[in-house]
Amino acid sequence: MKVTVVSRSGREVVKGGVELSDSATIADLQEAIHKRTKKYPSRQRLTLPVQPGSKERPVVLNYKKSLKDYTSGNSETLTVVFKDLGPQVSYRTLFFCEYLGPLLLYPVFYYLPVYQYFGYKGERVIHPVQTYALYYWCFHYAKRILETFFVHRFSHATSPLSNVFRNCAYYWTFGSYIAYYVNHPLYTPVNDLQMKIGFAIGILCQISNFYCHIILKNLRSPGGEGGYQIPRGFLFNIVTCANYTTEIYQWLGFNIATQTVAGYIFLVVATFIMTNWALAKHRRLKKLFDGKEGRPRYPRRWVTLPPFL
Amino acid sequence: MAGFFSLLRRLYLSLYNWTVLFGWCQVLYFVLKTLNESGHQYVYNAAEKPLLYAQTAAVLEILHGLVGLVRSPVTATLPQISSRLFLVWGILWSFPETRSHVLVTSLLISWSITEIIRYSFFGFKETFGFTPSWLLWLRYSSFLVLYPTGISSEVGLIYIALPFIKASEKYCIRMPNKLNSSFDYFYAAIVAMGIYVPGSPHLYTYMLAQRKKALSKSKRE
Predict the structure, then answer these.
(1) Is B221 part of the annotated catalytic residue set?
(2) Would you call A259 and B180 a contact, using CB atoms and an 8 Å cutoff?
């Protein structure tokens, strides 16, 4: 079978096309393109051509499917549109980089005399809440890194390299911003009761968050496949994205205990981002599980922020 | 019902645009009059009242975008209006030492001419449903000169204000405090200046693209 590979503008990407056997899969095609263009498979996005001026979204070719699945009738030729997605990194690498920053930067503000460079020369008194906050913070990011390697199963293998810089900027900047104020020599601690309530909420939510991730892991096969399923059990019976709920409320707990404007700004930004993700997932699940043609109906649930949303 | 709301919207936007236009006309009139009679040192004091009213009224434009009264994206409106308000209230109003500088004159002339063209353009559009071709051309061409002069004046005035900001410690929040936060207006002003570096070319190229689109569209018609 002859496959013509063109760019979105219609220019031939692989001169003369690619010759493949009739039983070849999209993965084989991607390998063939890789050999000819030096663009590895995860960089490639292959779609079927659409009519010029058409508003419909192009069909993305699934690497597991056969080429025959995309040809019309007994046709021996196929035209695919190639888009270079740019340099890619694995999701594990991305998450490791973004979480390693806060894990290493926070203790710098706690242990090292950084505040001398900001003009604070006096003796620094470390309050118990600052020590607990350090343990809490490091536990949180260590947990995230360990989950990345041993718990999460990713539906997409890779992410664009540019996301590493963007996500690292977000996490590392906020990490330093919060660490600066929580470990400040002039930090004013909250009362003991407030601290205990805050950390209790936080720890409870962290444990719940871990359990939510285990539930989500079991929805997917080890390869990351499994499509969309209705998550059930534990908090997922009342909230669509219980993993985000617990994430948001554990940061709320941390902020109740430490009380910094920096922490609350981070909480608001993170809540905004996760709420958008949750709304998108909620809509997707409701659309997918509509109760028609034998499909189950998606149950009525909070999206991510009970009792608000 | 939809027709009634459409009429109400047009009425409101017409009133808004002509009112703010009147404010900017006053600003330009006072600037030129004072410049002619007394010199650039007295320009701000003469134009202060209409300037504060007209520029602060622009906050409503963000609101118009948010509630869908106008099509302009909030992402484009917000940074422009924020920077203007920062200059008017955060620099000129807060630090009187900057008011006598010659850059205030170039700033106010650039702003007022830009806004007179812009608000009359929208005023015509909302009230009469059309805009004269010469006004359309001005709307999408005057920025070629007025943006560089306006932006240079803005950056220049922030720079001039820096020593006064540092000395006065105005708007600064220092630790210790219950909310464990601090704010240094001096560094905030430096950050604001820094934003102009990538922001200005971005805005300029955005306007060039808008110009190309608008003028080619008017040619076709």
Answers:
(1) no
(2) yes
B191 touches A: beta carbon within 8 Å = no
Assess B175–A contact: CB distance below 8 Å, yes or no: yes
Q: What whole-number distance in Å separates Cα of residue B129 and Cα of residue B141? A: 21
A 10 A CB-CB count for B61 gives 20
Residue A303 in any domain: the answer is: no
Which of the pair, A274 or B72, is modelled with greater confidence?
A274
Q: Which residue of B has its CA nearest to A182?
A: B180
Residues A209, A224, single domain; the answer is: yes
**Which residues of chain B have a CB within 8 Å of the CB of A186?**
175-176
Catalytic hit among B12, B29, B53, B147: B147
The CA distance from A233 to A246, in Å, is 15
Task: Pick the more confident residue, A251 or A85.
Answer: A251
Domain residue limits at B7: 1-216
If residue B133 lies in a helix (H) or strand (E), which one and from where to where? helix B133-139
pLDDT (0 to 100) of residue A34 = 86
CA angle A124, A130, A131 (to 5 degrees): 100
Among the three residues A86, A116, A132, which one is the final residue of a domain in this structure?
A: A86
Q: Kindly state whether B177 is in contact with chain A, defined as any CB-CB distance less than 8 angstroms.
A: yes
pLDDT digits over A5-40, tens only? 888 778 778 878 887 787 888 888 888 888 778 788
B147 is catalytic: yes
**pLDDT tens per residue, range B21-36:** 999 999 999 999 999 8
Q: Is residue A296 part of a domain?
A: no
Record: contact B176-A261, CB cut-off 8 A: no
Same domain, residue pair A101 and A219: yes
C-alpha triplet B171, B175, B180: angle, nearest 5°: 105
pLDDT at position B77, please? Answer: 84
Q: Domain of A120?
A: 89-288
Chain A nearest-CA distance from B130, in A, is: 30
| CB contact B180 to A (< 8 Å) | yes
Tens-place pLDDT, residues A208-256: 999 999 999 888 766 665 676 788 889 999 899 999 999 999 999 999 9
Taking CB atoms and an 8 Å cut-off, how many pairs form between chains A and B?
A: 28
What is the tally of structural domains in chain A? 2
Question: Residue B2 pLDDT more than 80?
Answer: no
- Overall average pLDDT of the A83-106 stretch: 92
Taking CB atoms and an 8 Å cutoff, what residues of chain B touch A188?
175-178, 180
Number of domains present in the structure of chain B? 1
Q: For residue B221, is it within any domain?
A: no
**CA–CA dist B48, B88 (Å, integer):** 9
Residue B221, pLDDT > 60, answer no
A125 and A195 fall within a common domain: yes
Q: If you write DSSP's letter for every residue of A42-77 in order, what string do you get? A: GGEEEE----TT--SPPPBPPTTSBGGGGS-TT-SE
Q: How far A52 CA lies from chain B's nearest CA (Å)?
A: 22
Q: Distance, in angstroms, between A175 CA and closest chain B CA?
A: 15
Residue A135 lies in a domain: yes
In sign, the C-alpha dihedral spanning A48, A53, A54, A55 is: positive
